[in-house]
Amino acid sequence: MRQALFLYSPQVWQTGHGSNHPLKPERLQRTYELLAEYGAFKAPNVKVIPPRAASDDELALFHTREYIDVVQQLSSGSYRQDVFDYGFGSEDNPVFAGMRELVGLSVGSALQGAELLLKGSCDVAFSYSGGLHHAAPNRASGFCVFNDAAVVIHWLLQHVQRVAYVDIDVHHGDGVQDAFYSSDRVLTISLHQDGRTLFPGTGAMEEIGIGKGQGYSVNVPLPPYTGNDTYLWAFNQIVPPLLERFNPDIVVTQLGVDTHYLDPLAHLELTTKGQMALFEALSRLAPRWLALGGGGYDISVVPRSWTLAFGVMSGQSFPDELPTAYRTNYGGESLQDSFSPTTEPPFVRESVELVVLKLKKLHSLS
Ligand SMILES: [Zn+2]
Fold first, then answer.
1. Which of 4, 41, 63, 361 has the fewest CB atoms lying closer than 10 Å?
2. CA-CA distance, 248 to 287, in Å (whole number)?
3. How much distance in Å is there from the Cα of 143 to the middle of ligand 1?
4. Which residues constitute the domain of residue 338?
5. 5 CA distance to ligand 1 centroid (A)?
6. Which is nearest to 257 in space by CA: 124, 348, 167, 153?
7. How far apart are the CA of 191 and the centre of ligand 1, in A?
8. From ligand 1's centre to the CA of 169, what distance in Å?
9. SS3 221
10. pLDDT tens for residues 164-222?
11. Contact indicator for 108, 137 with CB cutoff of 8 Å
């Protein structure tokens, strides 16, 4: 039985972007409550640990000192005219009080998971408040202020030789790809809705890395309306053989669940059944597994999907009927989706088959 760690404290949802922002803190609160009501944290192989803060030095593994200072100033209420230069001030990236503490906690959470994994205290750690993969060294982007994934991978590289990063968020993992674009010690793989149809616009197949890093950045762009079967088919064609060849010491995953058909910000058509199959596939590929959260903006979906994810990590299955207290507070009937989206249009499969064929050539897969 795998030793599984869940990194959480109520602090992760106390402040934040607020209820009117897509990245609403309720996503995290409801996920915790659903898992708790299912009794997931009582299993003998599960530990719940409160995350710690990240120091400025730790953030500086990826972010510039100047940017860390700016985030601190804005977080304490100082006004700056040049907030736009650092990616702030838009609807996507508002400035809010306590921002440094909150987003620093997501980074500390990932670091703590990584430390405990390397110590052998657990086999899998789920830092579900993180996965903030768009942030750049000196700029906030796409709801992300600090990039916990990039920071923790830099930290891991001080202790192990090779790290694989697999990003299944519906948006391209641009910040993490850029961080290691010229490295052969980090293999980044991102499956996402085609950047020509969705933020942040990057993640084309031809982005394969530069210099020593050539071949170590992998992008699988998928057309809108891609459903479970086609997504999983593409995943299985590309991800397992690449991971096997790379032979990482540790696998970091970003588990955004905005691939769901109900997600208001994107256009893939996965259901919880497809997402669970993905979590199971990742689980088989990652004996030592640092799982980060990520996107997901339908409040009826995120807690259910991440409950299924933690079930896979900790080897537990839960009854399909949602616990009474959860249903009373938030509605819903079942853990898995009870409806499926309409059938995938035929052009989707054809176009994904071409993507896979081209990727196999680009990355020398037979
Ligand atoms: Zn996303």
1. 361
2. 10
3. 9
4. 4-362
5. 24
6. 167
7. 11
8. 5
9. strand
10. 999 999 999 999 999 999 999 999 999 999 999 999 999 999 999 999 999 999 999 99
11. no
pLDDT digit string (tens) for 46-81?
999 999 999 999 999 999 999 999 999 999 988 888
CATH number at residue 197: 3.40.800.20
Task: Record the tokens describing residue 142, joined without a space.
Answer: 């796409």
User: What does the angle CA 254 – CA 302 – CA 163 come to, to the nearest 5 degrees?
Assistant: 10
Catalytic residues: 134
Look up residue 211 and give its two tokens. Answer: 């210099």
Task: Name residue 251's beta-bridge partners.
Answer: 164, 289
HSE, CB side, 13 Å, CA atoms: give it for residue 281.
21
Among the listed residues 41, 29, 43, 42, the one whose alpha carbon sits nearest the alpha carbon of residue 1: 43
Region for residue 217 given its phi and psi (left: phi exceeds 0; alpha: psi -120 to 50; beta: otherwise): beta
Q: For residue 239, report the distance from its CA to the centre of ligand 1, in Å.
A: 19
Ion ligand 1: protein residues whose beta carbon lies under 5 Å: 169, 171, 256, 258, 295
**CA–centroid distance, residue 195 to ligand 1 (Å):** 12
pLDDT for the residue numbered 224: 97
**Dihedral over alpha carbons 352, 259, 127, 146 (to 10 degrees):** 90
For residue 92 the two structure tokens come to: 């996507």
The residue to which tokens 């700029």 are assigned: 139
